[in-house]
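As a next step, we paired sequence with structure tokens, yielding the entry below.
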Amino acid sequence: MACAISILLREFCDELALVDVMEDKLKGEMMDLQHGSLFLKTPKIVAGKVDVLTYVTWKLSGLPKHRVIGSGTNLDSARFRYLMAERLGIHPSSFNGWILGEHGDSSVPVWSGANVAGVNLQKLNPDIGTDADQENWTETHRKVVDSAYEVIKLKGYTNWAIGLSVADLIESLMKNLNRIHPVSTMVKGMFGIGDEVYLSLPCVLNSNGVSSVVNMTLTEDERAQLKRSADTLWNIQRDLKDL
């Protein structure tokens, strides 16, 4: 619902559809938003039941792969940029860094591309992100992974950050901005991945969906971590391959 309200308040669409498996709660949320229609500029708010993976959505919808996108590691990357920037004493928009792969525990921090104003942090500290790093930057990625659990422990769930993250993606799509986001897309054939899995890579988003995927220069270790993420997902998905 934080995603819904973030989208509504930024006036991106003329119709918003809510999808969930909890039908009663879903109808209640829909009605609650409809009652506030006077204060919104989205004339139509509807709701319906389904709860599926990005991969399953792609398979069942029949849509081309560039039209099916998962929010992926867009929020993970935002958390990473916030935590790194806080330690560096700068605004998150001034730190450039990416979390790729699978959202959550097996996500891949791209230390080789982390930079501030073009100054590559790995060149300043060749051990950054490794066990040998005396500055312990790896702790920042651990905090990215643990941050959702911490918020859930404190308030029971996460909602505002993911809502803002999804609205950010919607803006790039609806306004045809050609901005780059780390979102979940079909990665078969990239970085040595041979299976049909959805993982997060830097994607150019516009009104067509994913218009292109940025071919990042990754280290061998980063490529291996990305491949492990793909293998983890494929082991879950393999039973769905006949969809």
Observations:
- The chain has eight helices and ten strands.
- Residues 2-51 form one domain.
- Strands lie at 15-19, 44-48, 95-96, 99-101, 107-109, 115-116, 119-120, 179-186, 198-206, 209-213.
- The first helix runs from residue 2 to 9.
